[in-house]
């Protein structure tokens, strides 16, 4: 509850994971439908859960239980396999040639884009629909032959981790940090916005990695005292909705409070928009290499 | 007498020698006048939640032992709203039970019928003044969230309970003990000014200068004389801390050293945390390198605790000579192996110092001592009585449970303040009081409520016998208050309560 953006925006304990869990002790899922739908699947409650509950998986399962069944639209030809090192770029990146090029350059020569980014799956999960098991199995199966995978969608990262934990998968941010080059690119005047969905899906490992970056560079991050990442509330799928319980403007104002940043570096491309109204340069993570003259 | 802890038979022969259990689980209020009350609130635009599924969120507190069911819940949004509620509640004689974080363990924040007022809807930080070193905040805010806001400006609160989710308002009414309380006092003593809604529904700003009587009655007042809606608190610049542990096998020696270090102001943070009464850990920590240096040059040699290695060797020798206690030795080893790293996780360490100690300690508290049921009776004593009272409490723990922890701290007093009367501060304490929590490790076992209650009663009975107080007292006080403080004092307060709250509706059954 402490870190739940829905709680911070509404002050309503019924709309939190704890609230749902308590209500369920004495009633049925029907009574928590509004609460389930309010959840933005950011995972901020997961690292703090004293009972070690996988809160996001639980929420996804509960809300898809009675949701509409969606087939998804796989974009690959049947039987396609991922080979070598593959980037699952979301549609915003795919639609921006420059960003896509920068991202591939930042990852290194041997990386290529894999056609099926699983975005239909994450859209279904976010909408609370039932995802076709066949589709998920097929997606995971296609990826199972890859050597390394980088994702740009936190829900897809979670799905891969959940169904095939042995796969070598990372978020784009983790990949950039572990390449070490980021360390020289950012400094104390930068605010680095972590993608909360990916980060909380692998919190035990990532908390130290990100803390290392913070300590080395002195940069600010959207982390709270528990080292939980505050989300902007904007996702690839809800970008154009205007009626949200979690108000991105409010989230962003809170993230920026007391953090006078000259540059804001976002790990998630869809976060460029909510931060753009502030007097700071807003860059997607692979753009900072260019900003610092390291690419191109 | 034998007590079983295996979950099969849990009613001790002499259970309930103190107070009957139902004292902490009062009968449910009848509901008379409820509909008219809700109607009146509705006409003022106040929404009362009554769906049974939602009310189930409020069935118990962190203790998980007392359960009650309210008729409805209001999530507090403003002082004005609360004032409307209190006026209507007086008129219709509706009990109002206030809940902040709900971290009570005796059911004090649980409503046994009537209205539950959830203060967490008032969680905004209003103003941080870095020159004056104060913060003005709504009182339903968790200390943790307050720390979060303060840190954005390089500031910190002074002292607060070591858990993530107690609220400012709930704590100011109860006490609030931290490992820096030996130096800074309890949380209630950080308050500079309060906005209070009285039981009759007046909104009053109070402080040591204005409306002082109310200020003193509300601080450490168990929510009897008003609902705290805003508070101005002292703050300080944030500092990472350096921490050291000294290990003892004698509880008495550790407590004596704690007292000495407290009196001498030798450290910024001091506390005892034990594993049974075999591995006693004196935690000593510092805000600055200078203070740390002074400790090592002036005080280290005067305390009897060992470093980790020295203690490990002695403990190993102790258990080698007592092979029949192998299970106990293994338990201690396992506890040490898991607990100590949790107290210094790498992502909270920078340049050898702990950053955000309140988060680190609080998370460890939940992880190692939290659970669906928490039974944490405590005693607060004067300096003279501290060692004897805690040694007696330790014997009670041993009698009831295989594994337990004691957590002891000193509490600096700020003179003889009126708020200390009829409070967690023992009447005979001068300059410092000392508190100890007795925390059995329930470890997933099921104990009957009577078993747990009789354990608590035995601890509380030590307080009666020795004339101490209880630093988190609440629910059990209804049964104990006269025995501990005497009729004269209690009747004086009861009269004030009746005057302030004619229908006796605000936080009933806690102490009156
Ligand atoms: C695991 C655990 C660890 C703990 N550790 C510590 C510790 O280290 N130090 C310590 O001191 N305590 C500790 N406590 C006890 C707990 O923190 C205190 O009782 C506490 O601070 C209560 O705050 P709360 O917001 O949870 O209050 P609540 O439990 O919600 O309420 C406490 C009392 O105050 C009343 N109340 C609540 N809000 C208001 C308000 N705004 N105005 C008027 N009355 C109000 C309630 O009706 C109730 O009677 C611990 C408890 C647990 C379960
Ligand atoms: S996942 Fe995020 S929005 Fe959902 S309950 Fe947890 S913290 Fe709240």
What does this structure look like?
The complex is a heterodimer of chains A (296) and B (512). By secondary structure, chain A is an alpha/beta fold. Chain A is 44% helix and 12% strand. Chain A has helices at residues 5-10, 17-26, 33-38, 55-65, 91-94, 97-107, 119-127, 133-143, 154-163, 172-178, 181-185, 196-201, 203-217, 248-256, 272-275, 287-291; strands spanning 69-70, 84-88, 111-113, 130-131, 146-151, 169-171, 190-193, 220-221, 263-266, 281-284. In chain A, the strands form three sheets. Chain A has a four-stranded parallel beta sheet with strand order 3-2-5-6, sandwiched between helices. In chain A, strands 8-7-9-10 form a four-stranded parallel beta sheet, with no helix packed on it. In chain A, strands 1-4 form a two-stranded parallel ribbon. Chain B has three domains: 13-119 and 486-500, 2-Layer Sandwich (Uridine Diphospho-n-acetylenolpyruvylglucosamine Reductase, domain 2), CATH 3.30.43.10; 125-237, Uridine Diphospho-n-acetylenolpyruvylglucosamine Reductase, domain 3; 242-480, Vanillyl-alcohol Oxidase, Chain A, domain 3 (3-Layer(aba) Sandwich). Helices cover 35% and strands 19% of the residues of chain B. Chain B has helices at 34-43, 52-55, 79-92, 143-151, 168-172, 181-184, 212-218, 251-263, 289-298, 308-320, 326-342, 357-369, 383-400, 449-466, 477-485, 487-500; strands at residues 72-75, 96-99, 115-118, 125-129, 134-138, 155-157, 191-197, 203-207, 227-237, 242-248, 269-275, 279-286, 349-350, 353-354, 378-382, 404-412, 432-440. The chains are: A alpha/beta (296), B alpha+beta (512). The A-B interface holds A 1-2, 11-14, 19, 22-23, 25-27, 31-32, 48, 50, 207-208, 211, 215, 224-227, 257-259 and B 49, 51-54, 56-57, 59, 75, 77, 118, 120-121, 123, 142, 144-145, 147-149, 151-153, 164-165, 346-348, 350, 356, 358-359, 363, 366-367, 370. The structure holds flavin-adenine dinucleotide and iron/sulfur cluster (SF4). Residues 4-6, 16-17, 39-45, 55-56, 59 of chain A line the site of iron/sulfur cluster.
